[in-house]
Amino acid sequence: MPDTGTFGYASPSNQILIAREKLQTRVAELGRQIEQDYAGKDLVMVCILKGGVMFLTDLMRAIRIPHAIDFMAVSSYGIGARESTGVVRIIMDLERDIRGKHVLLVEDIIDSGRTLNYICEVLNARGPATLRICTLLNKYERREVEVPLDYVGFNIPNEFVFGYGLDIDELYRNLPFIGVFKD
Ligand code: IMP
Ligand code: MG
Questions:
Q1: Average of per-residue pLDDT values in the chain
Q2: Which string of DSSP letters, residue by residue, matches 129-163?
Q3: Residue 110 CB–ligand 1 contact under 6 Å
Q4: Dihedral angle sign, alpha carbons of residues 147, 153, 159, 163
Q5: CA–CA separation, 1 vs 45, rounded Å?
Q6: Burial of 101 (0-12, 13-18, 19+ CB in 10 A)
Q7: In terms of pTM, does the model score above 0.85?
Q8: Residue 86 pLDDT > 80, yes or no?
Q9: Would you state the pLDDT for residue 77?
């Protein structure tokens, strides 16, 4: 295991699932694909806070066409919980109207699919030209609600992961790699 002490985090029982370089390479690939697909279109990337924030900022830098960004915060877990409750609350809504825009949702991870399914229902009702989904991680084995994924960074096994935006009880979002929580 690489030395993660620099980030204030080290536990022999936790492992790195996706290293920094691998993340960066994949984000660059997704950026190429997205800029081709949205060339000439009025693109708004909507980041779901807080988990999607590191992915969004790297992805934006990999996309060389003009685009706007906006943020939305929802809550589906309580502190300490590891399962989606199915009850999704909007904590913070978008700043701008998305009517007629090409909206790309940028998410950290799709687990049960409940959170994203709810967000899609809410946003589709506002009349975007298109609504598509870009997720860094896809925990496909856990899916309970079908959501169409347009861009997927990595399919991952059913394990609790952290780092690169994803938290364990609000910590470790700053890590530049994805780790697996084993404790
Ligand atoms: P879903 O509604 O079950 O799809 O849950 C999606 C949300 O749960 C994500 O946006 C994450 O914030 C959180 N989540 C799901 N799996 C993990 C994980 O392995 N680590 C950290 N957060 C997770
Ligand atoms: Mg979370």
A1: 90
A2: SEEEEEEEEE-GGG-SS----SEEEEE--SS-EEB
A3: yes
A4: negative
A5: 34
A6: buried
A7: yes
A8: no
A9: 60
Ligand 1 atom nearest to CA at 117: 2
Mean pLDDT of 129-157: 97
The pLDDT value recorded for residue 80 is 55
Q: Residue 109: its pLDDT value, please?
A: 97
Confidence of residue 149 (pLDDT cuts 50, 70, 90): very high
Predicted local distance difference test score (pLDDT) of residue 2 = 43
Q: Is the CB of 114 under 6 A from ligand 1?
A: yes
Point out the ligand 1 atom lying closest to the alpha carbon of residue 77. Answer: 8
* C-alpha torsion angle, residues 25, 28, 29, 30 (rounded to 10): 120
Cβ–Cβ < 8 Å for 118, 88: yes
Report CA(74)–ligand 1 centroid distance (Å): 11
CB of 111 closer than 6 angstroms to any ligand 1 atom: yes
Beta bridge partners of 69: 45
Mean pLDDT of 91-115: 96
Which two three-digit tokens encode residue 26? 């994949």
By the 8 A CB rule, do 14 and 183 touch? Answer: yes
Query: Which bound ligand lies closest to the C-alpha atom of 136?
Result: 1
